[in-house]
C-alpha cells in the first residue's frame, strides 16, 4: 500500500512539473523510445549540476531511483520539507552518509532495486564535472549491469549547469538538452573474456557513448569531488 501511494504521488508530481519544465525551459529531449517501459534498466548520464537528478526523473517515462543522503529526510525547515517531498515522489533512495560514500555499499543498495525490475540512475563519473568536461567512468554502472543482467541507457546532458547556477537564488530560464542513447547490453560486451575485463570494456563503451551524446571533451582520468567547505 505504501509503495502504491508513493507511485501515485510520483505520477501526480511528474504530471504537474513536466509541463512546467517544457513550458518555461523548453528542453530538447530525444531518444525516449530507447528506454524500456518495464524491467531493470540503468540510466547512466554525465553529471553537470545538482539539477540533473531533478530533470531526469521529471522528463523520463520511467520512475528512476537515485541514491540521496538520508539527512534530507531528517532535517527540519520548509526547504528541506519541499526537497524531501520531491525526493520521495521521484523515488529517491535515502542512504546514510557512510553507505553513500562507500562504493560497494551504494552498489549493493542499487542492485536490490534492479533485481526488483526497477530503473536506477547513476553518474559513472562519480561526481559533478566542475569544468564541463567528461571524465573517465568508474566501474559501478558496469558492475550493476552484469550483476543484474540489465541494459544501460547512456544519457548526454547539455546546459543543465545553467539551470540553477551556484549563487543564484532562483532557477534561470536557460535551454538544456537531454539525449537518451540506444541501450548497451552487457551480454554483447567481450563475451568469453573474464568479467573484470568485460566490466572495463563496458565502462569504456559507455563513456564513449555519453561523450557522443553530450558533445563534451573527454578527459582520460578520474574526476575528484569538490573540497568540502566548513
CATH architecture: 3-Layer(aba) Sandwich
| Integer tally of domains | 1
Strand proportion, as a percent range, falls in 15-25%
Strand arrangement within the widest β-sheet reads: 1-9-8-2-6-3
Give the CA-based shape: globular
Oligomer: single chain
Helices, by number, come to: 7
Would you identify the CATH H-level superfamily? Glycerol-3-phosphate (1)-acyltransferase
Report on the architecture of this protein.
- With 230 residues, this protein is an alpha/beta fold.
- It has a single domain (2-62, 117-219), classed as 3-Layer(aba) Sandwich (Glycerol-3-phosphate (1)-acyltransferase).
- 39% of the residues lie in helices and 15% in strands.
- The protein contains seven helices and ten strands.
- It has helices at residues 2-24, 52-59, 78-90, 97-100, 103-115, 140-148, 195-214, and strands at residues 28-30, 41-45, 64-65, 67-69, 93-95, 119-122, 134-135, 152-158, 177-180, 218-219.
- It has a six-stranded mixed β-sheet, sandwiched between helices.
- Strand 4, helix 3 and strand 5 (93-95) form a beta-alpha-beta unit.
- Helix 1 packs across helix 3 and helix 6 (140-148) packs across helix 7.
- It is globular and about 50 Å long.
- The protein starts with a helix and ends in an 11-residue tail after the last strand.
- The model has no long low-confidence stretch (mean pLDDT 86).
Amino acid at each position: 500500500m505504501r509503495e502504491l501511494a508513493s507511485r501515485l504521488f510520483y505520477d501526480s508530481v511528474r504530471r504537474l512539473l513536466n509541463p512546467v519544465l517544457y513550458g518555461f525551459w523548453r528542453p530538447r529531449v530525444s531518444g525516449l523510445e530507447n528506454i524500456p517501459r518495464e524491467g531493470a534498466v540503468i540510466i547512466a548520464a554525465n553529471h553537470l549540476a545538482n539539477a540533473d537528478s531533478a530533470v531526469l526523473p521529471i522528463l523520463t517515462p520511467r520512475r528512476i531511483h537515485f541514491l540521496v543522503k538520508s539527512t534530507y529526510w531528517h532535517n527540519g525547515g520548509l526547504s528541506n520539507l519541499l526537497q524531501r517531498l520531491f525526493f520521495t515522489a521521484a523515488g529517491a533512495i535515502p542512504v546514510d552518509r557512510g553507505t553513500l560514500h562507500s562504493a560497494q555499499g551504494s552498489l549493493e543498495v542499487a542492485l536490490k532495486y534492479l533485481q526488483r525490475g526497477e530503473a536506477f540512475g547513476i553518474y559513472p563519473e562519480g561526481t559533478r564535472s566542475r569544468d564541463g568536461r567528461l571524465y573517465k567512468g568508474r566501474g559501478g554502472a558496469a558492475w550493476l549491469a552484469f550483476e543484474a543482467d540489465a541494459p544501460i541507457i547512456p544519457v548526454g546532458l547539455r546546459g543543465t549547469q545553467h539551470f540553477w547556477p551556484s549563487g543564484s537564488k532562483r532557477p534561470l530560464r536557460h535551454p538544456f538538452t537531454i539525449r537518451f542513447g540506444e541501450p548497451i547490453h552487457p551480454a554483447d560486451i567481450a563475451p568469453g573474456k573474464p568479467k573484470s575485463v568485460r566490466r572495463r570494456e563496458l565502462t569504456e563503451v559507455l563513456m564513449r557513448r555519453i561523450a557522443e551524446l553530450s558533445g563534451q571533451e573527454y578527459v582520460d582520468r578520474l574526476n575528484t569531488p569538490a573540497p568540502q567547505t566548513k
